[in-house]
Design brief:
With 307 residues, this protein is an alpha+beta fold. 15% of the residues lie in helices and 14% in strands. The protein is flat and about 70 Å long. The two termini are 19 Å apart.
């Protein structure tokens, strides 16, 4: 039994055969509410606290006492309950990270960001009180401004900041480097990233084929990426490949190639309607629509020091 249950044990009453701080399994077994929906094996012997229960529990249902709080971010596991003493303690208990504000440990808050104008006269953002102003599409890349790890990993800091690069608009990565923007379909500039370094763009629809982008990428590929790479034109070859397959869709195929069957690679994690690069499994950032990729991840979280 967890420490909070122990602290309050003497004052507990019995509800339906179980103590007030316990969950009643379908079989009548009593388990500590802090032991269910933790991302590991079910605590109930009858498995009535399965992933399905954890996903569909009423977010508004009462918790046993004011010492407890329900994890309640959209897309998380509302069946999970944690102790109020675990809120904002710089450690993740809720799988959906709703126990920390902002989501990740020791991150810089959104209110530390402010609008500015960069050296080219374009609108940008910067950390308040600093001179490092850059367009949002120029932050958190591997080669440019904004290499502040804690800020670049803070999903909440960037969620309301649009991705722009001069006159084009991109999309934001959603994993461990949420400050990065990508512009996979643009051919006007050579500079912007096309691929998320946290691999959060490597999520593919099941029962789909990888797109043929040869027409879009003709500017970079010329006679074909294979020719460009084989002739030693590394820069052109890299540009060609990143344009042809910016999200590594062919990597999800059992037989990679043009228009191959996405999600047929058995090494990819299979969600209910999509598949993920295996590196996205148990990274603390749910990518499956139902959060299956963050199920049974306690040991991985500990190894990766996520919790």
């Amino acid at each position: 039994m967890r420490s909070i249950g122990l602290l309050l044990l003497l004052s507990g009453s019995v509800r339906g055969g179980c103590k007030w701080y316990q969950h009643t399994c379908n079989s009548g077994q009593c388990v500590d509410v802090l032991d269910i929906c933790q991302g590991g094996d079910p605590a109930c012997n009858d498995k009535s606290d399965s992933l399905q229960y954890c996903k569909t529990a009423d977010r508004n249902s009462p918790v046993p006492d004011s010492w407890y709080i329900r994890c309640n971010k959209t897309g998380g596991l509302p069946g999970q309950i944690v102790g109020t003493s675990q809120i904002t303690d710089d450690k993740y208990q809720c799988i959906d990270r709703s126990d920390e504000d902002p989501y990740t440990v020791k991150e810089e808050r959104t209110d530390q960001m402010e609008n500015c104008t960069d050296e080219y006269g374009s609108p940008g953002v910067r950390v308040a009180g600093t001179d490092n102003c850059a367009q949002s599409g120029n932050w958190c890349t591997d080669w440019s401004a904004g290499l502040n790890p804690s800020l670049c990993h803070n999903r909440t800091a960037w969620q309301d900041i649009p991705c722009t690069w001069f006159d084009i608009t991109g999309t934001r990565c959603t994993g461990g480097k949420s400050g990065q923007c990508i512009f996979p379909d643009q051919t006007k500039y050579d500079g912007p990233d096309r691929t998320c370094s946290d691999m959060s763009d490597q999520v593919h629809d099941q029962n789909s084929t990888c797109s043929d982008r040869s027409g879009l990428c003709a500017k970079y590929c010329g006679g074909g990426c294979e020719d460009g790479c084989g002739d030693g034109w590394q820069a052109d070859g890299v540009k060609c490949q990143s344009c042809l397959d910016p999200h590594n869709c062919t990597g999800s195929c059992s037989k990679p190639g043009p228009s191959c069957q996405a999600c047929s690679n058995t090494e990819y994690f299979q969600c209910s309607d999509t598949c993920l690069h295996p590196g996205l499994r148990c990274d603390g950032h749910p990518q499956c629509s139902q959060g299956e990729d963050e199920e049974d991840c306690e040991d991985d979280y500990k190894e990766k020091k996520i919790v």
